[in-house]
């Protein structure tokens, strides 16, 4: 079932995923230059989590999402334009950000976490805790 | 300065509210035994993802949940050597009296200063909201306590030194 789907992602598929993530990073950079942080975040969250257990893919994806997250200044505005389908995956990345311990990252993640919980509720947090298969 | 603290405590409170969904679960390996699964970690299907919430490089909070128990480990801010010693002694004092607190763990988890273990029995006897309030209040007060202790140590040191050196005037 879900475990079977993970199996077919072997080393060469990981390379394909990393190329896809690099392509995504370039798109995010250009969106950030055009001053569109919310679009950048949406691009970063699309196609996540990478359907693989490979740590490099997850790290690469996290770096892209981190770049987009730190560029966001207006948290309320971001939520008004972000679709609810992204809430769960955003919550998982927020917890990854909070575990880094880096002060600016943690400050930003805490700010977004509070607003996201208000919007999405406790269910969002519980889904990120309970999902042991699709981790970020 | 208080605002980042408030955000950190709100985040911990929300995570605890979501994570504190405990029910009774008898041990799967041994008959008629009932053990807190978060401590044993023998069956991965009974455990949820552990969550680490860092406020900055020094302070963090690790929340591990399982089906019948929840473990919260805290690392408090220790700015200098004196605060280090005070925090260690004070939290050891509390941990040794863990029986009185019920939810406290006798030894903190490796890498942290103090740990709480909340089981389904605690949730049945006590209100979930009150438990969460207790933990968050504890986190808030621990900083104040240690600053107060540090101040009293410095004051006492100053008084003792003044008195002692008066004889040389």
Automatic annotation (TrEMBL), chain A:
<dbReference type="InterPro" id="IPR036743">
    <property type="entry name" value="ARPC5_sf"/>
</dbReference>
<comment type="function">
    <text>Functions as component of the Arp2/3 complex which is involved in regulation of actin polymerization and together with an activating nucleation-promoting factor (NPF) mediates the formation of branched actin networks. Arp2/3 complex plays a critical role in the control of cell morphogenesis via the modulation of cell polarity development.</text>
</comment>
<keyword id="KW-0966">Cell projection</keyword>
<comment type="subunit">
    <text>Component of the Arp2/3 complex composed of ARP2, ARP3, ARPC1/p41-ARC, ARPC2/p34-ARC, ARPC3/p21-ARC, ARPC4/p20-ARC and ARPC5/p16-ARC.</text>
</comment>
<keyword id="KW-0206">Cytoskeleton</keyword>
<dbReference type="GO" id="GO:0042995">
    <property type="term" value="C:cell projection"/>
</dbReference>
<comment type="similarity">
    <text>Belongs to the ARPC5 family.</text>
</comment>
<keyword id="KW-0963">Cytoplasm</keyword>
<dbReference type="InterPro" id="IPR006789">
    <property type="entry name" value="ARPC5"/>
</dbReference>
<protein>
    <recommendedName>
        <fullName>Actin-related protein 2/3 complex subunit 5</fullName>
    </recommendedName>
</protein>
<dbReference type="GO" id="GO:0005885">
    <property type="term" value="C:Arp2/3 protein complex"/>
</dbReference>
<dbReference type="GO" id="GO:0034314">
    <property type="term" value="P:Arp2/3 complex-mediated actin nucleation"/>
</dbReference>
<dbReference type="GO" id="GO:0030833">
    <property type="term" value="P:regulation of actin filament polymerization"/>
</dbReference>
<comment type="function">
    <text>Functions as a component of the Arp2/3 complex which is involved in regulation of actin polymerization and together with an activating nucleation-promoting factor (NPF) mediates the formation of branched actin networks. Arp2/3 complex plays a critical role in the control of cell morphogenesis via the modulation of cell polarity development.</text>
</comment>
<dbReference type="Pfam" id="PF04699">
    <property type="entry name" value="P16-Arc"/>
</dbReference>
Automatic annotation (TrEMBL), chain B:
<keyword id="KW-0206">Cytoskeleton</keyword>
<dbReference type="GO" id="GO:0005885">
    <property type="term" value="C:Arp2/3 protein complex"/>
</dbReference>
<dbReference type="GO" id="GO:0051015">
    <property type="term" value="F:actin filament binding"/>
</dbReference>
<keyword id="KW-0963">Cytoplasm</keyword>
<dbReference type="Pfam" id="PF05856">
    <property type="entry name" value="ARPC4"/>
</dbReference>
<dbReference type="GO" id="GO:0034314">
    <property type="term" value="P:Arp2/3 complex-mediated actin nucleation"/>
</dbReference>
<dbReference type="InterPro" id="IPR008384">
    <property type="entry name" value="ARPC4"/>
</dbReference>
<comment type="similarity">
    <text>Belongs to the ARPC4 family.</text>
</comment>
<dbReference type="GO" id="GO:0030041">
    <property type="term" value="P:actin filament polymerization"/>
</dbReference>
<comment type="function">
    <text>Functions as actin-binding component of the Arp2/3 complex which is involved in regulation of actin polymerization and together with an activating nucleation-promoting factor (NPF) mediates the formation of branched actin networks. Seems to contact the mother actin filament.</text>
</comment>
<dbReference type="InterPro" id="IPR034666">
    <property type="entry name" value="ARPC2/4"/>
</dbReference>
<keyword id="KW-0009">Actin-binding</keyword>
<protein>
    <recommendedName>
        <fullName>Actin-related protein 2/3 complex subunit 4</fullName>
    </recommendedName>
</protein>
């Amino acid at each position: 079932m879900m475990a079977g789907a993970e199996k077919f992602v072997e080393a060469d598929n990981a390379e394909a995923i990393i190329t896809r993530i690099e392509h995504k990073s370039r798109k995010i950079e250009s969106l950030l230059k055009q001053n569109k942080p919310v679009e950048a975040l949406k691009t970063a969250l699309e196609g996540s989590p990478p359907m693989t257990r490979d740590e490099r893919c997850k790290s690469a994806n996290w770096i892209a999402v981190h770049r987009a997250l730190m560029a966001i200044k207006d948290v309320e505005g971001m939520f008004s334009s972000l679709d609810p389908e992204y809430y769960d995956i955003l919550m998982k990345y927020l917890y990854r950000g909070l575990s880094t311990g880096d002060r600016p990252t943690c400050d930003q993640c805490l700010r977004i976490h509070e607003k996201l919980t208000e919007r999405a509720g406790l269910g969002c947090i519980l889904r990120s805790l309970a999902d042991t298969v699709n981790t970020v | 300065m208080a605002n980042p603290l408030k955000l950190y405590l709100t985040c911990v409170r929300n995570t605890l509210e979501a994570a504190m969904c405990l029910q009774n679960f008898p041990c799967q390996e041994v008959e008629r035994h009932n053990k807190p699964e978060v401590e044993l970690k023998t069956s991965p299907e009974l455990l949820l993802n552990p969550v680490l919430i860092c406020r900055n490089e020094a302070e963090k909070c690790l929340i591990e949940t399982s089906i019948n128990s929840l473990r919260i480990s805290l690392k408090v801010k220790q700015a200098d050597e004196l605060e280090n010693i005070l925090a260690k002694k004070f939290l050891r004092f509390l941990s040794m009296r863990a029986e009185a607190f019920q939810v406290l763990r006798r030894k903190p988890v490796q890498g942290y200063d103090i740990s709480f273990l909340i089981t389904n029995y605690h949730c049945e006897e006590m209100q979930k909201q009150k438990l969460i309030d207790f933990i968050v209040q504890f986190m808030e007060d621990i900083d104040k306590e240690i600053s107060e202790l540090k101040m009293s140590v410095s004051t006492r040191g100053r008084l003792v030194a003044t008195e002692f050196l008066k004889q040389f005037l």
